[in-house]
Amino acid sequence: MQPKKKRRNVPLNSAAWLKLRAQVLAEEPLCRTCMASGIVTPATDVDHIHNGTGDFTDDNRREALQPLCASCHSRKTRAEMNGEAVTVPGCDVNGIPLDPSHPWRQPT
């Protein structure tokens, strides 16, 4: 017998989620991951920051959510599902890797 899956407090198709999602995107209309890399990209998705923990008890807290573009959200979700680290591909115009965890981006 498989363990019972945890359920979200706020189902993703509910009016409460749609209202919270709209609030997040209104407060922060740009992708947080792209902005950290110096790229301005409109946010289209709202992400549960710690989705991989399986703890959905605080889904409706604003600080547990972040705005992301579709590309960053897909990359993060795929990495979480595969148990991989979330990375940011590519480099900026100066050839510096965009991934904030890359050794070149670490303070010396």
UniProtKB/TrEMBL annotation:
Alphabetized UniProt keyword annotations: Endonuclease, Hydrolase, Nuclease
A GO molecular-function annotation: endonuclease activity
Phylogenetic lineage: Bacteria, Pseudomonadati, Pseudomonadota, Gammaproteobacteria, Oceanospirillales
Alphabetical list of InterPro entries matching this protein: HNH, HNH_nuc
Protein name per UniProt: HNH endonuclease
Ranges where the HNH domain occurs: 31-78
Gene3D superfamilies registered for this protein in UniProt: 1.10.30.50
TM stretches of this protein: none
